[in-house]
Design goal:
Elements (H helix, E strand, L loop, with lengths): L2 H11 L4 H31 L9 H4 L13 H9 L1 H30 L23 H8 L12 H18 L6 H8 L3 H11 L16 H25 L2 H15 L7 H14 L7 H10 L13 H17 L1
Protein backbone atom coordinates (compact mmCIF):
# COMPACT_ATOMS: atom_id res chain seq x y z
CA UNK A 1 0.00 0.00 0.00
CA UNK A 2 1.39 3.44 -0.91
CA UNK A 3 1.61 6.33 1.53
CA UNK A 4 -1.12 8.13 -0.40
CA UNK A 5 -3.48 5.14 -0.23
CA UNK A 6 -2.82 4.62 3.47
CA UNK A 7 -3.34 8.31 4.21
CA UNK A 8 -6.66 8.28 2.35
CA UNK A 9 -7.85 5.38 4.46
CA UNK A 10 -6.63 7.11 7.62
CA UNK A 11 -8.63 10.25 6.85
CA UNK A 12 -11.82 8.18 6.76
CA UNK A 13 -11.28 6.56 10.17
CA UNK A 14 -9.23 8.92 12.34
CA UNK A 15 -9.20 12.51 13.48
CA UNK A 16 -6.13 13.91 11.76
CA UNK A 17 -5.07 16.47 14.34
CA UNK A 18 -1.50 17.83 14.02
CA UNK A 19 0.19 15.44 16.48
CA UNK A 20 -1.41 12.43 14.83
CA UNK A 21 -0.46 13.58 11.33
CA UNK A 22 3.15 14.04 12.43
CA UNK A 23 3.13 10.61 14.07
CA UNK A 24 1.71 8.92 10.97
CA UNK A 25 4.28 10.66 8.78
CA UNK A 26 7.19 9.60 11.01
CA UNK A 27 5.88 6.05 11.30
CA UNK A 28 5.53 5.69 7.53
CA UNK A 29 8.96 7.21 6.88
CA UNK A 30 10.70 4.77 9.24
CA UNK A 31 8.62 1.91 7.85
CA UNK A 32 9.69 2.71 4.29
CA UNK A 33 13.34 3.17 5.29
CA UNK A 34 13.41 -0.13 7.16
CA UNK A 35 11.79 -1.99 4.28
CA UNK A 36 14.39 -0.47 1.94
CA UNK A 37 17.22 -1.73 4.18
CA UNK A 38 15.70 -5.20 4.42
CA UNK A 39 15.26 -5.35 0.67
CA UNK A 40 18.79 -4.01 0.21
CA UNK A 41 20.25 -6.81 2.32
CA UNK A 42 18.43 -9.38 0.16
CA UNK A 43 19.62 -7.68 -3.02
CA UNK A 44 23.19 -7.72 -1.68
CA UNK A 45 22.91 -11.44 -0.94
CA UNK A 46 21.64 -12.03 -4.46
CA UNK A 47 24.49 -10.00 -5.98
CA UNK A 48 27.13 -11.78 -3.92
CA UNK A 49 26.07 -15.11 -5.45
CA UNK A 50 27.95 -13.91 -8.53
CA UNK A 51 31.20 -13.88 -6.55
CA UNK A 52 30.67 -17.13 -4.65
CA UNK A 53 33.94 -18.99 -4.04
CA UNK A 54 36.14 -15.94 -4.62
CA UNK A 55 39.01 -15.37 -2.18
CA UNK A 56 39.11 -11.66 -3.01
CA UNK A 57 37.86 -9.14 -0.47
CA UNK A 58 34.77 -7.11 -1.31
CA UNK A 59 36.71 -3.80 -1.79
CA UNK A 60 38.70 -5.55 -4.50
CA UNK A 61 35.57 -6.85 -6.23
CA UNK A 62 33.42 -3.70 -5.87
CA UNK A 63 35.89 -0.79 -5.60
CA UNK A 64 33.30 1.77 -6.73
CA UNK A 65 30.88 1.14 -3.84
CA UNK A 66 30.90 3.80 -1.13
CA UNK A 67 32.21 2.66 2.28
CA UNK A 68 32.98 -0.83 0.95
CA UNK A 69 36.43 -0.73 2.60
CA UNK A 70 34.67 -0.72 6.00
CA UNK A 71 33.11 -4.04 4.94
CA UNK A 72 36.53 -5.60 4.29
CA UNK A 73 35.35 -9.22 4.07
CA UNK A 74 35.25 -12.13 1.70
CA UNK A 75 31.98 -13.04 0.00
CA UNK A 76 31.43 -15.96 2.39
CA UNK A 77 31.90 -13.84 5.52
CA UNK A 78 29.69 -11.07 4.13
CA UNK A 79 26.94 -13.57 3.36
CA UNK A 80 26.87 -14.75 6.98
CA UNK A 81 26.37 -11.18 8.20
CA UNK A 82 23.74 -10.36 5.61
CA UNK A 83 21.79 -13.51 6.41
CA UNK A 84 21.50 -12.15 9.96
CA UNK A 85 20.63 -8.62 8.83
CA UNK A 86 17.07 -8.77 10.21
CA UNK A 87 18.35 -9.51 13.71
CA UNK A 88 20.71 -6.52 13.66
CA UNK A 89 18.19 -4.23 11.97
CA UNK A 90 15.47 -5.29 14.41
CA UNK A 91 17.69 -4.39 17.36
CA UNK A 92 17.79 -0.86 15.96
CA UNK A 93 14.26 -0.63 14.56
CA UNK A 94 12.27 -1.73 17.62
CA UNK A 95 13.71 0.98 19.93
CA UNK A 96 13.44 3.57 17.14
CA UNK A 97 9.80 2.88 16.35
CA UNK A 98 8.83 2.69 20.01
CA UNK A 99 10.57 6.01 20.66
CA UNK A 100 8.48 7.66 17.93
CA UNK A 101 5.32 6.11 19.36
CA UNK A 102 6.18 7.10 22.93
CA UNK A 103 6.78 10.69 21.87
CA UNK A 104 3.33 10.76 20.22
CA UNK A 105 1.60 9.46 23.36
CA UNK A 106 3.46 11.80 25.71
CA UNK A 107 2.77 14.82 23.50
CA UNK A 108 -0.89 13.78 23.33
CA UNK A 109 -1.02 13.74 27.14
CA UNK A 110 0.46 17.26 27.15
CA UNK A 111 -2.25 18.30 24.70
CA UNK A 112 -4.93 16.84 26.97
CA UNK A 113 -3.47 18.68 29.95
CA UNK A 114 -3.66 21.91 27.97
CA UNK A 115 -7.32 21.19 27.24
CA UNK A 116 -8.05 20.84 30.94
CA UNK A 117 -7.69 17.07 31.39
CA UNK A 118 -5.13 16.54 34.20
CA UNK A 119 -2.78 13.66 33.50
CA UNK A 120 -3.62 10.58 35.55
CA UNK A 121 -1.70 7.31 35.69
CA UNK A 122 -1.77 4.06 37.57
CA UNK A 123 0.87 3.85 40.27
CA UNK A 124 1.58 3.66 43.99
CA UNK A 125 -0.27 6.84 44.90
CA UNK A 126 -4.03 6.92 45.42
CA UNK A 127 -4.19 10.32 43.75
CA UNK A 128 -3.67 9.28 40.13
CA UNK A 129 -2.50 12.78 39.17
CA UNK A 130 0.55 12.28 41.41
CA UNK A 131 1.81 9.16 39.62
CA UNK A 132 4.50 9.44 36.95
CA UNK A 133 3.66 8.50 33.37
CA UNK A 134 6.06 6.13 31.64
CA UNK A 135 6.05 3.66 28.76
CA UNK A 136 4.50 0.94 30.91
CA UNK A 137 1.38 2.95 31.85
CA UNK A 138 1.11 5.71 29.24
CA UNK A 139 -1.69 4.15 27.16
CA UNK A 140 -3.93 3.65 30.14
CA UNK A 141 -2.98 7.17 31.24
CA UNK A 142 -4.73 8.55 28.15
CA UNK A 143 -7.90 6.69 29.12
CA UNK A 144 -7.68 7.76 32.78
CA UNK A 145 -6.93 11.40 31.92
CA UNK A 146 -10.12 11.52 29.86
CA UNK A 147 -12.12 10.25 32.83
CA UNK A 148 -12.43 6.66 31.66
CA UNK A 149 -12.21 3.77 34.18
CA UNK A 150 -8.93 1.88 34.82
CA UNK A 151 -8.36 -1.29 32.88
CA UNK A 152 -9.87 -4.26 34.71
CA UNK A 153 -7.74 -7.35 35.25
CA UNK A 154 -7.43 -9.45 32.08
CA UNK A 155 -9.33 -6.90 30.02
CA UNK A 156 -6.46 -4.81 28.66
CA UNK A 157 -6.87 -4.14 24.93
CA UNK A 158 -4.89 -6.77 23.04
CA UNK A 159 -2.86 -4.24 21.08
CA UNK A 160 -1.67 -2.71 24.37
CA UNK A 161 -0.53 -6.15 25.53
CA UNK A 162 1.45 -6.64 22.33
CA UNK A 163 3.03 -3.21 22.76
CA UNK A 164 4.04 -4.20 26.28
CA UNK A 165 5.90 -7.22 24.87
CA UNK A 166 7.73 -4.95 22.43
CA UNK A 167 8.47 -2.52 25.26
CA UNK A 168 10.03 -5.34 27.33
CA UNK A 169 12.04 -6.45 24.27
CA UNK A 170 13.23 -2.87 23.76
CA UNK A 171 14.31 -2.63 27.40
CA UNK A 172 16.23 -5.90 27.09
CA UNK A 173 17.97 -4.63 23.96
CA UNK A 174 18.90 -1.24 25.44
CA UNK A 175 19.47 -1.95 29.11
CA UNK A 176 20.58 -5.58 29.16
CA UNK A 177 22.67 -5.90 26.03
CA UNK A 178 19.97 -7.99 24.38
CA UNK A 179 19.82 -10.52 27.23
CA UNK A 180 16.40 -11.84 28.22
CA UNK A 181 15.35 -10.05 31.40
CA UNK A 182 12.96 -11.15 34.14
CA UNK A 183 10.57 -8.41 33.04
CA UNK A 184 10.52 -9.77 29.48
CA UNK A 185 9.90 -13.30 30.76
CA UNK A 186 7.06 -12.14 33.00
CA UNK A 187 5.49 -10.06 30.24
CA UNK A 188 5.54 -12.90 27.71
CA UNK A 189 4.26 -15.46 30.19
CA UNK A 190 1.49 -13.12 31.31
CA UNK A 191 0.03 -12.60 27.83
CA UNK A 192 -3.64 -13.40 27.38
CA UNK A 193 -4.70 -16.10 24.92
CA UNK A 194 -5.95 -13.41 22.52
CA UNK A 195 -2.62 -11.59 22.65
CA UNK A 196 -0.71 -14.84 22.07
CA UNK A 197 -2.92 -15.57 19.07
CA UNK A 198 -2.38 -12.11 17.59
CA UNK A 199 1.38 -12.35 18.14
CA UNK A 200 1.48 -15.72 16.38
CA UNK A 201 -0.51 -14.31 13.45
CA UNK A 202 1.74 -11.26 13.09
CA UNK A 203 5.19 -12.61 13.98
CA UNK A 204 4.65 -16.11 12.55
CA UNK A 205 6.08 -17.72 15.68
CA UNK A 206 4.84 -18.38 19.19
CA UNK A 207 5.50 -15.57 21.66
CA UNK A 208 7.16 -18.02 24.05
CA UNK A 209 10.06 -18.42 21.61
CA UNK A 210 11.11 -14.82 22.29
CA UNK A 211 12.59 -15.80 25.64
CA UNK A 212 14.22 -19.03 24.48
CA UNK A 213 17.24 -17.42 22.80
CA UNK A 214 19.75 -15.50 24.88
CA UNK A 215 20.56 -12.94 23.57
CA UNK A 216 17.22 -12.21 21.89
CA UNK A 217 16.92 -13.15 18.22
CA UNK A 218 14.75 -10.83 16.17
CA UNK A 219 13.17 -12.00 12.92
CA UNK A 220 11.93 -10.01 9.95
CA UNK A 221 8.35 -10.76 10.99
CA UNK A 222 8.93 -9.18 14.39
CA UNK A 223 10.03 -6.00 12.65
CA UNK A 224 6.75 -6.10 10.72
CA UNK A 225 4.95 -6.80 14.00
CA UNK A 226 6.44 -3.66 15.56
CA UNK A 227 5.04 -1.48 12.79
CA UNK A 228 1.66 -3.23 12.83
CA UNK A 229 1.25 -2.99 16.61
CA UNK A 230 2.24 0.67 16.93
CA UNK A 231 -0.04 1.53 14.02
CA UNK A 232 -2.95 -0.29 15.69
CA UNK A 233 -2.28 1.31 19.08
CA UNK A 234 -2.12 4.75 17.47
CA UNK A 235 -5.52 4.18 15.82
CA UNK A 236 -6.98 2.86 19.09
CA UNK A 237 -5.82 5.95 20.97
CA UNK A 238 -7.24 8.13 18.21
CA UNK A 239 -10.65 6.49 18.69
CA UNK A 240 -10.38 7.04 22.46
CA UNK A 241 -9.63 10.72 21.90
CA UNK A 242 -12.54 11.06 19.48
CA UNK A 243 -15.01 10.08 22.21
CA UNK A 244 -13.15 11.59 25.17
CA UNK A 245 -12.53 15.12 23.89
CA UNK A 246 -15.64 17.29 23.61
CA UNK A 247 -16.97 18.48 20.26
CA UNK A 248 -16.33 22.12 21.15
CA UNK A 249 -12.70 21.35 21.98
CA UNK A 250 -12.20 19.41 18.76
CA UNK A 251 -13.66 22.38 16.91
CA UNK A 252 -11.14 24.75 18.48
CA UNK A 253 -8.29 22.33 17.69
CA UNK A 254 -9.49 22.14 14.08
CA UNK A 255 -9.80 25.91 13.70
CA UNK A 256 -6.33 26.58 15.10
CA UNK A 257 -4.90 23.77 12.98
CA UNK A 258 -6.55 25.11 9.82
CA UNK A 259 -5.45 28.69 10.46
CA UNK A 260 -1.84 27.49 10.78
CA UNK A 261 -2.12 25.79 7.37
CA UNK A 262 -4.06 28.30 5.27
CA UNK A 263 -2.93 31.46 3.51
CA UNK A 264 -6.47 32.83 3.31
CA UNK A 265 -7.44 35.89 5.32
CA UNK A 266 -9.40 35.38 8.54
CA UNK A 267 -13.01 36.63 8.56
CA UNK A 268 -13.17 36.21 4.79
CA UNK A 269 -15.70 34.01 2.99
CA UNK A 270 -12.94 31.87 1.34
CA UNK A 271 -11.39 31.32 4.80
CA UNK A 272 -14.68 30.11 6.25
CA UNK A 273 -15.54 27.87 3.29
CA UNK A 274 -12.07 26.34 3.38
CA UNK A 275 -12.37 25.79 7.13
CA UNK A 276 -15.54 23.73 6.62
CA UNK A 277 -13.84 21.67 3.91
CA UNK A 278 -10.78 21.17 6.13
CA UNK A 279 -12.93 19.99 9.00
CA UNK A 280 -14.74 17.51 6.75
CA UNK A 281 -11.46 16.10 5.43
CA UNK A 282 -9.31 15.88 8.54
CA UNK A 283 -11.77 15.91 11.45
CA UNK A 284 -14.63 13.75 10.16
CA UNK A 285 -14.31 11.43 13.15
CA UNK A 286 -15.06 14.34 15.50
CA UNK A 287 -18.36 15.00 13.65
CA UNK A 288 -17.93 18.76 13.49
CA UNK A 289 -20.80 20.62 11.83
CA UNK A 290 -20.82 24.17 10.51
CA UNK A 291 -22.19 25.62 13.74
CA UNK A 292 -19.44 24.01 15.85
CA UNK A 293 -16.64 25.16 13.56
CA UNK A 294 -17.87 28.72 13.09
CA UNK A 295 -18.65 28.97 16.80
CA UNK A 296 -15.06 27.98 17.60
CA UNK A 297 -13.76 30.39 14.95
CA UNK A 298 -15.78 33.18 16.54
CA UNK A 299 -14.50 32.33 20.03
CA UNK A 300 -10.93 32.43 18.73
CA UNK A 301 -11.46 35.75 16.95
CA UNK A 302 -11.34 34.39 13.40
CA UNK A 303 -14.99 34.93 12.46
CA UNK A 304 -17.90 37.32 13.15
CA UNK A 305 -21.06 35.72 14.51
CA UNK A 306 -23.34 38.02 12.55
CA UNK A 307 -22.02 36.83 9.19
CA UNK A 308 -23.32 34.05 7.01
CA UNK A 309 -21.19 32.22 4.47
CA UNK A 310 -22.45 32.99 0.96
CA UNK A 311 -22.23 30.13 -1.55
CA UNK A 312 -19.32 30.03 -3.96
CA UNK A 313 -19.60 32.19 -7.06
CA UNK A 314 -19.89 29.10 -9.28
CA UNK A 315 -22.82 27.88 -7.19
CA UNK A 316 -24.54 31.27 -7.36
CA UNK A 317 -24.09 31.43 -11.15
CA UNK A 318 -25.45 27.90 -11.53
CA UNK A 319 -28.48 28.90 -9.46
CA UNK A 320 -29.07 31.95 -11.66
CA UNK A 321 -28.79 29.87 -14.83
CA UNK A 322 -31.23 27.32 -13.44
CA UNK A 323 -33.67 30.10 -12.64
CA UNK A 324 -33.33 31.51 -16.17
CA UNK A 325 -33.91 28.07 -17.66
CA UNK A 326 -36.99 27.50 -15.52
CA UNK A 327 -38.43 30.90 -16.47
CA UNK A 328 -37.86 30.32 -20.18
CA UNK A 329 -39.70 26.99 -20.03
CA UNK A 330 -42.66 28.67 -18.35
Amino acid sequence: MTNKQESSRTFATCVEFPLFRAYESSRQRVNNGTMALLAGSKLALHTLQLTKGSELLLPEIFPGVDHIRKFNLTTEDANEILLDAANHLGAVTIPYVLAIHTNFVMETLKMLEGLGYPNKARGNKADLTKNDVNTSNMHEAVHLSLGMPPFAARSIPTEYELFDVLRAMRNSLIHAGGRVTSDLKATVRGMSSNAKGDWLRLARRDASTIILDNPIRITTNEIFTTFAVTKKVGRTLNAVLQTGISTSQWARICVDDFDDQTSKFVRSDPWARSLLAYGAQYYAGAKLDEAALLGAAEALGYWDASREIPPRRSVRLASIENSKTANSIQ
